[in-house]
Amino acid sequence: MIRVEHPGLYSSIQDQGRSGQQEYGVPVSGVMDAFSASLANTLVGNQQGEAVIEMTLQGPKLRFESPAMVSVVGANFTPVINGHLNHMNRAFNLKEGDLLSFERPTRGIRAYIAIAGGLNVDDVMGSKSMFAGITNQSRLQKNDCISIKNVKRDSITRNAGIKMKDRMTQQILHVYEGPEFELLTDLQKEAIMATNFTISNENNRMAYQLIERIPNKLPELITSMVMPGTVQLTPAGKIIILMRDCQTTGGYPRILQLSEESINLLAQKFSQDTIRFSLKNYM
Questions:
Q1: Which of 4, 29, 70 is nearest to 206 (CA)?
Q2: How far apart are CA 56 and CA 150, in angstroms?
Q3: What is the DSSP annotation of 249-282?
Q4: What is the DSSP letter of 103?
Q5: Closest CA to 84 of 97, 104, 102, 108
C-alpha cells in the first residue's frame, strides 16, 4: 500500500490509455511521455503498459506501507528516500515505512514512477488512466491510498538500470502532413517549417498552444476526427498541438501530425521552451 502524504502539483495514475473508445467521444488519455513510462515499467519487470504514477513539475511525497521495488524515469526528478538522494533510471527497493519524495526537475517536466507488480486500481473502459468525468478523480489527492498488486518476494531483488541519452533538450519535432496540409499556401508551408516556435503558457495534458502565429485565411472545417499529436491552425493563425487528453473531434484545419516519438518529446516541454517542425514522409 502507498499513502499519498502530498500529491505534488499534478500527479495522476496513467497507463497506455483508452484505445477504441473515441467513437463514443472518450479521449485516449494515458501517459504523456509513453517512452519514459515504458522504460520505468521495464526496469521493475512489469509489462510496458502497466499503470504508473505520472508527476508533473513537482513530485508527490509517498509513504510506502509495504516493501516495494520502484523505478523513476523521465525528467530529472531526483528521488529522495527518507531525506537521502537516490538515482533515477534504475530499480531500487523501498522498505515498509519509507518516504519517497523528489527534487524539482531542471530538465523536462514529467517523470514516471513504476512499482513492481503494478498498481491495483480500478479499470474503467479498458484503462486505469485518470480523467475527469471518466474516473472518480483526475489526479492524486492527499491521503489517497494506492494498493500495489501482489508480487513474489523473490522478484524484489532486481538490480536493473539504464544509461539514458538526454532527450529533454531536443527541439526538433518530426511531423507528417495532415489531411488539410495541401490547403496551405507555399508561403505558409515555408513559414511553418522555418519558424522556431515558442510554447505559450497554455500547455497541459489536452493541448499545447504556440505563441508565434502563421497568417491564415483558411476557414474552419466541418467537425472532423482528431487525435493526440494533431496540429491545428486556427483562423487567427494560432497553432494548437493536441495531446493525450484531447477531444476526439475538432473543426480547425489539421495541417500536421506529430510522430509518436515527438509527442513524447513535446510532453517534456514547458512555457517558453522552443520547438521546430521537421517534415517526414509516410513511406
A1: 29
A2: 27
A3: EE-S-EEEEE-HHHHHHHTT--TT-EEEEEE---
A4: P
A5: 102
Q: Name the residue with cell 473508445.
A: 21
Please answer whether residues 244 and 228 qualify as being in contact, where contact means their C-beta atoms are separated by less than 8 angstroms.
Answer: yes
pLDDT computed for residue 220 by the predictor:
79
Reading the block at residue 50, the C-alpha cell is 502497466
- As a residue count, the chain comes to 283
**Do strands 2-6 and 68-74 pair parallel, antiparallel, or not at all (unpaired)?**
unpaired
Q: State how far the Cα of 71 lies from the Cα of 91, in Å rounded to an integer.
A: 5
Q: What's the rounded Cα separation, in Å, for the pair 84 and 214?
A: 49
Q: Average pLDDT for consecutive 10-residue bins of the chain (283 residues)?
A: 95 93 87 97 94 97 96 95 93 95 94 96 93 92 92 56 76 96 95 97 97 90 92 96 95 96 97 96 71
- Which residues have CB under 8 Å from 165's CB, separation 6+? none
**Per-residue confidence (pLDDT) for residue 65, from 0 to 100:** 95
pLDDT at 159: 61
Confidence at residue 222, expressed as pLDDT on a 0 to 100 scale: 84
Closest listed residue to residue 227, CA positions, set 266, 178, 271, 182: 178
DSSP 8-state code for residue 188? H
- Residue ranges and CATH numbers for the domains of the chain are 2-155 (no CATH), 172-279 (2.40.100.10)
- The conformational region for residue 126 under phi > 0 = left, psi -120 to 50 = alpha, else beta, is left
Residue type, 275: I
| Sheet strands side by side (includes 52-56) | 12-14, 52-56, 110-115, 68-74, 92-94
Looking at residue 25, its pLDDT comes to 85
87, three cell numbers: 538515482
Question: Is the distance from CB of 116 to CB of 89 less than 8 angstroms?
Answer: no
Burial class of residue 95 in the structure, from the number of CB atoms within 10 Å of its CB (0-12 exposed, 13-18 middle, 19+ buried): exposed
